[in-house]
Write a structure and sequence with these properties.
Blueprint (H helix, E strand, L loop, with lengths): L1 H15 L35 H19 L12 H6 L2 H15 L2 E6 L7 E8 L2 E9 L7 E6 L3 E2 L1
Helix pairs in contact: 2-4
Length: about 160
């Protein structure tokens, strides 16, 4: 009964946050990071000149790198972020925020991803050892699709 109650709570939390559970089987790669804990407004569609397939693949790659860094498996490279992003959030601050997530919540994996018609932005919900952590991420509209925005929302306990 404990596991059933926990699963129902997880499902209810994800539904309340606007998530739909989708399987993300990524061979040999860390899964993406957390998404918003509050209801989200629908994302604006991508500009018509965006290569949606390439942008979506790049977004997933950036997300996987961030989750791996949050788990302490790797370090993020500054060249994965735009100059404007790094002006607002220096790389050291980003690394510290991800290390803090790992220290406080333990190892994490992605359990849900926001459905969006925009291949340049997404939100994910991380299921960590001690709770859940929402993360939102956006990339630029052209290659190399560097990160333009990242929002690590406050985690919540299981």
């Amino acid at each position: 009964m404990q596991k059933t109650g926990s699963a129902l709570l997880t499902t209810a939390l994800m539904a309340a946050a606007g998530f739909t559970a989708t399987a993300h089987a990524q061979e040999g790669a860390a899964t993406p990071a957390p998404a918003a804990a509050a209801a989200q407004e629908p994302a604006a569609p991508a500009p018509s000149n965006v290569d949606a397939a390439a942008a979506s693949a790049a977004l997933l790659k950036r997300l996987q790198a961030i989750v791996a860094a949050a788990d302490g498996k790797s370090k993020l490279a500054a060249n994965n972020f735009t100059e404007e992003f790094l002006k607002q959030s220096p790389m050291d601050a980003v690394q510290k925020a991800l290390a803090s997530l790992h220290t406080g919540m333990g190892s994490c994996k992605t359990v849900a991803r926001m459905q969006s018609g925009n291949p340049l932005a997404t939100g994910v919900l991380l299921d960590c050892a001690k709770g859940y952590a929402p993360l939102e991420l956006a990339v630029e509209a052209k290659a190399p699709y560097r990160v333009t925005a990242m929002m690590l929302r406050p985690p919540f306990w299981k």
